[in-house]
Specification:
Rossmann fold, globular, 9 strands, about 40% helix, alpha/beta
Length: about 300
């Protein structure tokens, strides 16, 4: 695998960090997989998946969002977005990356893989630019009911108005993710809900670019995105021929233990999509790509991509 990671400057003169991993043999490249990471983490955590996919002939691209990873200008910026504008800036970065990759690798299939919050961004991007994609994978998606979306918007907007967008509201952070661990008592750590692989949980805890609380501005942006991707009219803009794979662990508290993935699959089918598959792993939690059976998951992902895009 060849590492071509670097900083990129976008059209607004903002800089962001882009991971780019390529197969050692350029002639073997058969497609591009763009990974969209979740909240409280960074794209560098997807290196093992990238190593597997590049060995199967795929270029793997993943950017650190604003307020995340190496894109954050300082530790104080981790977990911050400029509200709706910041959310849309991520989507613009994703569009810039895809447009550039399609120019550099013409004729190759393009797959978008979003995990957790990244699955929200992936759905939003597909609503806007679904014709640029050949397949969509949603990993560990949420189960966010409309009342919670409106409550989140109200709390984050109110908190932002009173304390400013950089304020880290304990209540919103608690309601968003700190309640997830109650399903896994007795708790070993505050992030047992991520994966059953304790070693990888410990690595996450020691990573200074993971596990940080997010700001009111971040939640303003995320809940705006959630509002859009839960509207039937918006989902109707996704090309109906686009194949979609949803993967989740049966014990994923973020997705309410399969309820969320099944709801999203139903929403997409009702919007007219004809090829939507849900794959649930019986022992898994939130991060199937970091589970103890991750090699099985990697093989399933690559196999599905190759089958759906004709790149076997």
């Amino acid at each position: 695998m060849t590492d071509h990671s670097r900083y990129i400057t976008d059209d607004s003169s903002s800089s962001f960090f882009l991971y780019e991993w390529l197969p050692d043999d350029p002639a073997s490249i058969k497609g591009i997989v763009q990974i969209v990471h979740g909240m409280m983490e960074h794209a560098g955590r997807y290196l093992p998946l990238a190593e597997y996919l590049t060995a199967r002939g795929f270029v793997v691209i993943a950017e650190d969002h604003p307020g995340h990873g190496k894109t954050a200008s300082s530790p104080k910026e981790l977990g911050h977005l400029e509200g709706r504008k910041g959310w849309m800036a991520i989507l613009d970065q994703m569009h810039l990356i895809i447009s550039d990759a399609k120019k550099r690798f013409p004729g190759r299939t393009y797959i978008l893989l979003g995990h957790s919050m990244g699955s929200m961004l992936a759905r939003h991007f597909t609503i806007l630019h679904g014709n640029m994609l050949d397949a969509l994978i949603l990993s560990g998606p949420d189960d966010t009911a409309r009342p919670l979306i409106w409550a989140g918007l109200t709390l984050s907007n109110g908190s932002g108005m009173i304390y400013g967008r950089h304020y880290r509201n304990r209540m919103i952070n608690y309601l968003t993710y700190k309640t997830l661990n109650r399903y896994f008592k007795p708790n070993r750590t505050a992030f047992d809900w991520l994966t059953t692989d304790n070693d990888l949980v410990d690595i996450y805890l020691k990573d200074p670019m993971c596990g940080f609380p997010s700001t009111s501005g971040f939640y303003q942006g995320m809940f705006h995105g959630l509002k859009i991707i839960n509207q039937k009219d918006s989902l109707g803009k996704i090309p109906d021929q686009l194949p979609v794979l949803i993967i989740n662990g049966k014990h994923d508290a973020v997705g309410k233990f399969t309820k969320g993935p099944q709801k999203i699959a139903r929403q997409l089918r009702e919007a007219g999509l004809r090829d939507v598959t849900v794959r649930t792993y019986p022992e898994g939690r939130h991060e199937m790509h970091n589970e103890r059976n991750r090699m099985e998951v990697f093989a399933d992902l690559a196999g599905w991509i190759e089958m759906k895009t004709g790149t076997t």
